[in-house]
Write a structure and sequence with these properties.
four-stranded parallel β-sheet, elongated, alpha+beta, single chain, nine-stranded antiparallel β-sheet
């Protein structure tokens, strides 16, 4: 029987764990795993628990939102590759982009079954400026601050609608940044209103969607870098956003790159997010793709299709 550490974030998703924890534990136990349950109490607890207690278990499973998963991954990345246990995810957040990227059910009992009985998928992880990590996206520009500045009580009461309402309020104040971008295929320098470095099919609270037709794979050692140039006139803003939302990368203002490493250089410090959380302000950012860094539990059919 596998030893499994279940880390629960009690603040995620309207504290919904109260309604399903017993069923989750029963499912995990019936799936052949012996669970130990711990609750996070403060910021950084999930990272610490994964790093300090994780090596004693065959599998670490986190129960919470995308930020909870990101913290768990960061904790495991502090371990030597051979010491990292497998990772499971039971999504309980408001947006759950990562759950969609990994093909996980929003039903916690079904997700618990996958965490206990699924297949391990080798997942690429992003390293941010050498010391921090991200699971699915690092971004700057338009709307990137929405996910971590939207008040938690609004997220809990309104769910995804809270992100949408906050985003609409920010439209009149869109900022743009002149940026030099060095990637595997060359160098760009332009004025941008948005950039996302992603290993994902969905990000931005579900605003942006990619697929295998865009060359996306979670385990190919490459990022997808989505760039939105600043429109030259206000009349071009609407078509630019429309192209971004419809995945039209053939126009003048929206493009998609594939690269293992990418460096951004700005004239002034720029705010970033990592996995929807505050990533700090930086004049230079380097994102490195670490192939197959984590083994994450997914459905058998999802693992076979990647």
């Amino acid at each position: 029987m596998k030893k499994l550490l279940l880390i629960v974030n009690p603040n995620a998703g309207r504290a919904g764990y109260r309604d399903c924890l017993s069923d989750v534990l029963y499912t995990i136990d019936r799936g052949g795993c012996r669970p130990t349950v711990v609750f996070s109490r403060a910021s950084g607890d999930i990272r610490r628990l994964a790093a300090e207690d994780g090596p004693a278990y065959d599998r670490v499973v986190c129960m919470g939102g995308d930020g909870t998963l990101s913290e768990a991954v960061t904790g495991l990345m502090g371990l030597a590759p051979g010491d990292r246990p497998e990772l499971g995810y039971i999504p309980m957040g408001t947006s759950n982009d990562c759950a969609t990227n990994l093909g996980l059910s929003r039903d916690p009992v079904y997700a618990a079954y996958t965490a206990a009985c699924g297949s391990p998928l080798p997942l690429d992880v992003g390293r941010f400026n050498g010391t921090e990590y991200f699971t699915y996206v690092a971004a700057f520009g338009a709307f990137t601050e929405v996910s971590y500045e939207t008040p938690q009580d609004q997220k809990n009461s309104l769910g995804w609608l809270a992100y949408a309402l906050d985003a609409l309020n920010r439209v009149p104040n869109l900022t743009h940044r002149i940026c030099r971008i060095e990637y595997d295929g060359g160098v760009l320098e332009d004025d941008y209103i948005f950039c996302a470095v992603a290993n994902a099919t969905r990000f931005g609270g579900g605003i942006f969607h990619l697929s295998s037709s865009h060359g996306v794979s979670l385990s190919d050692g490459l990022f997808e870098v989505m760039l939105i140039r600043t429109p030259e006139t206000i009349l071009e803003l609407g078509p630019t956003i429309s192209d971004a939302l419809s995945n039209n990368f053939t126009g003048e203002f929206v493009s998609l790159l594939h690269t293992k490493n990418v460096r951004f250089t700005f004239h002034d410090p720029v705010s970033w997010t990592r996995d929807g959380e505050d990533g700090g302000k930086h004049r230079e950012v380097v994102c490195e793709n670490l192939p197959h860094a984590i083994r994450v539990m997914v459905r058998d059919d999802f693992a076979q299709g990647v």
